[in-house]
Amino acid sequence: MTKKEIIQKLPYTKPFLFVDEIVEVNEDHIKGNYTFLHNEYFYKGHFKGNPVTPGVILTECMAQIGMACFGIFLLKDTWDQEAWNVAMTSSDINFYAPVFPGEKVYVEADKVYFRFNKLKCNVAMYNSKNVLVAKGVVAGVAFKNNIEK
Amino acid sequence: MTKEELLSKLKTIITPYVQNTKGLESLNENTDFIKDLEINSANLVDVVLDVEDEFDIQIDNEAMEKMLTVKASLLVIEEKLEAK
Q: How near does any CA of chain A get to the CA of B25, in Å?
């Protein structure tokens, strides 16, 4: 699976896709990046007249790169967007620096474990000055759609 | 290892993931991890991984899917310990 194919297989789309590029991936870790556009929808309200990327969106960005992309890679050919869903099951993140409109962020994730379709990772986000933006632990599961639904 | 020892070790493992502590007080063989203890289903994976470490056993997909109650989990652990 190529790095581009991983992104194509993601179950997200604009305005809720926060992955531009996967630059490195193997069985143990993944690295990717995303540039927050000036016109992202949430800047209109967060905050009034002072756009700053919400922490939940930074968490989402780390989860999309560090869990969704990584998980799809680890599941290999088993993953099928039509038949599978993903869900974040826990997150514990600390934030160290703000991310403003137009900033590019770099996400790194190291696998803690991938068992029974659950992926737990240590994740970190840096800005283009290589300053730590956020760091913590996220976990998520991939599961098959309920066919009866 | 006696059944009581097994149960006591299992109780220690599941405790950090339990939301319904009343269910933990009345823990017995028929206790269901999700229904009675309100363990988040994703944390069942953590329970299984902790069981592997504690008892030095390997749990496969098939066994993992069975481990939804105390009784079923004890059975899996006993089987795997015997097979060691």
A: 26
Nearest by CB to residue A115, choosing from B41, B43, B45, is: B45
State the smallest CA–CA distance between residue A89 and chain B in angstroms.
6
ipTM of the prediction:
0.87
Q: What pLDDT band is residue A148 in, cutting at 50, 70 and 90?
A: very low
Active site residue A38: no
**CB atoms < 10 A from the CB of B68, how many?**
16
CATH number for B3-83: choose from 1.10.1040.10, 3.30.470.10, 3.10.20.600, 1.10.1200.10: 1.10.1200.10
- Kindly list the residues from chain A whose CB atom is less than 8 angstroms away from the CB atom of residue B49: 113, 115
Q: How far apart are CA B68 and CA B48, in angstroms?
A: 10
The whole-model pTM stands at 0.91
Q: Do A116 and B40 touch (CB under 8 A)?
A: no
Is residue A149's pLDDT more than 50?
A: no
Q: What is the residue-averaged pLDDT of chain A?
A: 94
A44: tokens are: 């209109």
Task: Sketch out chain A's domains with CATH numbers.
Answer: 3-142 (3.10.129.10)
**Partner A contacted by B37 (CB < 8 A):** no
Catalytic member of A46, A104, A118, A120:
A46
Compute the distance between CA of residue A137 and CA of residue A78 in angstroms, rounded to an integer: 25
Cβ–Cβ gap A141/B49 under 8 Å? no
